[in-house]
Specification:
Blueprint (H helix, E strand, L loop, with lengths): L8 E2 L4 E2 L4 E6 L7 E6 L5 E6 L5 E3 L4 E9 L5 E7 L3 E2 L3 E3 L5 H13 L8 H4 L13 E3 L9 E2 L13 E2 L1 H17 L19 H15 L8 E5 L17 E5 L1 H18 L4 H20 L22 H15 L2 H9 L15 H11 L6 H23 L14 H18 L3 H14 L24 H5 L50 H17 L1
Parallel strand pairs: 2-10, 11-15
Antiparallel strand pairs: 1-3, 3-7, 4-5, 4-8, 6-7, 8-9, 8-10, 11-12, 13-14, 14-15
Helix pairs in contact: 1-14, 3-4, 3-5, 3-9, 3-14, 4-5, 5-6, 5-7, 6-7, 7-8, 7-9, 10-11, 10-12, 11-12, 11-14, 12-14
Bound molecules: ligand 9MR.
Amino acid sequence: LPEGRSEHILVNQVGYLPGASAQIILTQRPEGGEFYLMDSSGAARLATLPLALDSLVWPSAGQTVWPQEITAPRAAGHYRFLVPGLGYSAPFAVGDAVYQDPFLASVKALYYQRASTALPERYAGKWQRPLGHPDTAALYHPSSGKEKGTLDSPKGWYDAGDYNKYVVNGAFPLGQYFALYEDIGDPVPDGQLNIPESDNGVSDYLDEMRWEMDWLLTMQDDDGGLFHKLTTKEFEAMVMPHEARRQRYVVGKGTAATLNFAAAAAQGARIFADIDSVYAADLVRRAEMAWAWALLHPAVAYTNPADIKTGEYGDKNFTDEWYWAGAELFVTTGKAPYLAYLRSHPAPLHFKGGSWTSFMGLLGCFSLLRHPEKVPAEIYAPIRMRCLEVADSIAATSLEHPYRLPMTKFAWGSNSDLLNAAMVTAAAYQLSPEQRYLQHITDVVDYVLGKNPTGYSFLTGFGSRSPMFIHHRQSAADGIAEPVPGLLSGGPNSGQQDRQQAQYPPDVAPMKSWVDQQASYASNEIALNWNAPLSYILAWVQVNR
Ligand code: 9MR
């Protein structure tokens, strides 16, 4: 039998829940009719498994694949596969809490993204760093509607590998994080995250969420509308936060930012109600002010002014933003105007490839589905039915794909598109616990953590082969070999918008269009709204399997 680790056996490098049904992929022809489950040292043969010899040519991965069905061992431990003709797989763990460490890291990553604070060694370990971006005096850009003056707008999380703060992509991931809290209860009780607020008697999870919510509140103008973003004119160089000192501006004001804020603040009000009723009441008031502004300005699309070159988060279709805000405001307040909105607008419950641009409406639907006692049956029933239909279609489409994925297009942030799909099947599972939904969810987890054509686990710090050179300014500039842990790389992106800077292999297949290079902002960046559904799914799957 061959020795050594084979690149041609694709497994979840973190591991499996005990007894889980899963698929692994071989990308080279195996020999014989069986393969073996081994202990992690590779010395002891624990089980013999039948080898499926059917192969499939899959051009979008540039591969021929030999998928194998497996059942994870029931006994907790560490294992590998041995495939005759190929060699050993990466090691993987089996256990009830196998995703707990990656989950906690994915939440702790938000702490590492904090603006306006130093990260002392006590909390940040070797990724400690000085304070960056106090953001106490961001200049109003003319596009904000203000002619002069500055805004005091501290806190919040850096959006991604860059240091800007965008309202659209602050509120949206916050909504996804809130969804987890509402679906499974407090996933990180006080004292578990080792952040400065640990041991203050409040959930560490909510302490971390509040860092972002507090910032969003500063971005609301007196008239109720939300400025679009707080940003430099151009992206900073790959330097540490405290070295990134270019002037920051408050830019734009628009319907998408305003409605997303309304939604997240209204949802946050429910979540913070038991912990801080004054804060919660303020969130409701601010959310209603935002909704009122949006009624007066129902379709103000944001586009970058000529002198602003940073991320746009532009979206000209507000259907899903309206629905998300209306749904959260209705569930929180029960007031008639929000109900009227829901009655007169069909739920935008569809899966259009999983991009953030059309996903906010789904968050609204999930909140309605979570509160059957509050939602009139004639609104609830069709949303419930539609959620199951969409999940059925996601699960069925996935079974036709050799990697069991619901899509064939791999765009910017494709990993988040897949995880967003899993959030839909998770919502459906909560309505109707069908095995096929759960299977889809664990298949997505397996893909992200290593069972994908690149052979990498896309989560920094987890898996035997994970990104070392993410497009993330701190990780690039801190002089520490390991990137900040718990960050999800965007994943394969056939668009290769960064091909001038990054080196892709020639003619690389769409599902392999990813490189572990700092320059690759289009495939190997990280972003809040990519970590959010990962955190959701990792915690959710451990509770709901
Ligand atoms: O996630 C965004 C993706 O859908 C867009 O195609 C891309 C280009 O506009 O921008 C992505 O968001 C980036 C944002 O604009 C700026 N911060 C980094 C984000 C992740 O790359």
